Amino acid sequence: MKKITIIGLGGMGSNFITFVNKYLKKDISNIEINTLLVNPKELDKDFIENNVQKDEQIFVVLGLGGSSSNVLIELMDILKETNIKPYLIVLKPFVFESKERTKLANSTIEKLNNLDNLKIFENNLDKLCDDNTTMNEAMGLMDKNIFKFIIESVNWLVYSSYIIWTY
User: For residues 111 and 101, what is the distance between their CA atoms, to the nearest angstrom?
Assistant: First the structure.
């Protein structure tokens, strides 16, 4: 069984972890999913080393544009020091949010653009829903899309490992 850890960073990461644990985790049978919430104010190398297994596939999920953007670089440095190369999944700010948040998000993305495992989700809710969709339902749709990406990535890794192993 493939083991993964999903690290939620900041408010969006916390909401995503809650959604996964409440609605999605129970429906996946071939993947053991560990979830870990990292509070940006309490980011600590020992905490990461004690709660993230090196043999698992690691996914870091967060929304950009707030205080988590600054902490993300520090988290990535800690993971690098511990020889953990995570998939990084970031969600851009909503189009209606302030220009400062968008500017901070874009600046963070520039710093991370050299990463192989970076997935950027646009926060265009109008593409996910219609006029009758509530904000809560729209957030759930975004969480499902992010989770789908994680599961597809894990299944691709399992599949590609199998191919390499059989040759």
Answer: 16
- Could you tell me the sign of the dihedral formed by the alpha carbons of 7, 84, 64, 139, in that order? negative
The dihedrals phi and psi of 62, each to the nearest 5 degrees, come to -160, 160
CB 93 within 8 A of CB 107: no
Q: pLDDT per residue over 21-68, tens digit each?
A: 988 877 777 788 888 888 877 788 888 888 888 778 899 999 998 888
Three-state DSSP at 141 gives: helix
The residues near 143 (Cβ < 8 Å, ≥ 6 apart) are: 15, 16, 19, 20, 24
Distance CA 13, CA 33 (A): 15
**Global pTM?**
0.84
Q: How many CB atoms lie under 10 A from the CB of residue 136?
A: 8
> Which pairing describes strands 2-9 and 31-38: parallel, antiparallel, or unpaired?
parallel
